[in-house]
Amino acid sequence: MIRKLFEKGEEPRAATIGIVGLGLIGGSFAKAYKAKAPDYHVYAINRTRSTLQKAIDEGVVDGILDEETIGKCDLIIINLFPEATIKYIEDNRKFFKPNTIVTDACGNKRGICAEGFKLAEDDDFCFIGAHPMAGTQFSGYDNSREDMFDGASMILVPTLERELDITPKQEMIIMRLKTLLAPIGFGEYRVTDAATHDRLIAYTSQLGHVMASSYVRGDLALESFGFTGGSFRDMTRVAYCNAEMWSELFIENGDNLTAEIDKLINELSMYRDAIASGDRKRLSDLLAEGSKRKEIINKHE
Q1: Is the distance from CB of 127 to CB of 100 less than 8 angstroms?
Q2: How far is CA 208 from CA 62, 178, 205, in A?
Q3: Per-residue pLDDT tens over the stretch 14-68
Q4: How crowded is residue 94: how many other Cβ atoms within 10 Å of its Cβ?
Q5: Residue 282 has pLDDT above 80, yes or no
Q6: Which fold has domain 2-192?
């Protein structure tokens, strides 16, 4: 189940936003709200206190997200590793005000959503999974930008498994969240289930990181200076990554990711065999099919 929403939601009233984690994504959320919706109040918490203080000094954050200010928030966006995200909800749910929307920005959705939906059922807050399709190869608050999400797709995940219909309650949460996110500048919203999200993201994101990392580990990588161009830079850009974070994401989504790696190995084997056997016709057909696929993809981007 994937549903595409182009509407940006109603014009939002001034709201209070809580941001957990001021890295690349959390910092970009904070900067976007302050630049585009200055009447919003933004509270934040971060493991490194100096980063939090820097955001406060810069006027990006209005104050610390703590037991008192959590209860003022209309929306709380958690930007942590998967396990830390669940722990934050467990530790702080008693402070959420009724009907607060709690969401996350993690790259996997099944584990977080399973726990998030369960915890929300026991309390009065609303949980919905989210995944902004934006970022860079660099991490940290200093690399965050107020325009990070301009025109980007935002994936919303209100269910665990494929369902034919969204319930009225889920629809209400989706529309409220879109309204609260309206100042950020997302170009479109996609609504799907956690299982579908994880299957697709294994191919569109995680496989690319595995490919880039394995490619630059080749024997010739450190002899290639002066011999590289755009194709090498494009292929290896995401090899520069947060190894700890991506390791957790890869293993958590291991069933989907290993399946995609196996498919890629099979594809590479077909190219290898055609080259090794000198089968120019077969190789040309493979390359032509790849070119056509890319043309189709470009028309939908």
Answers
A1: no
A2: 37, 29, 5
A3: 899 999 999 999 999 999 999 999 999 999 999 999 999 999 999 999 999 999 9
A4: 10
A5: yes
A6: Rossmann fold (3.40.50)
Q: Say how far apart CA 129 and CA 110 lie, in whole Å.
A: 9
Whole-angstrom distance, CA of residue 28 vs CA of residue 25: 5
Are the beta carbons of 91 and 65 closer than 8 angstroms? no
Residue 119: partners with Cβ closer than 8 Å, 6 or more residues away:
89, 90, 93, 127
CA distance 258 to 49: 38
Cα torsion 169, 175, 177, 179: sign? negative
3-state secondary structure of 126: strand
Q: CATH classification of 198-300, choosing from 1.20.1250.20, 3.30.990.10, 1.10.3660.10, 3.30.70.1450?
A: 1.10.3660.10
Rounded to the nearest 10°, the torsion over CA 101, 15, 72, 122 is -10
Residue 3 CB neighbours (<10 A): 11
Nearest to 63 by CA among 92, 72, 184: 72
Contact residues for 125 (Cβ-Cβ < 8 A; gap 6+): 93, 96, 97, 98, 99, 100, 101, 102
CA distance linking residue 103 with residue 82, whole number of Å = 12
CA distance 299 to 178: 26
* Among 40, 27, 292, residue whose Cα is nearest residue 181: 40
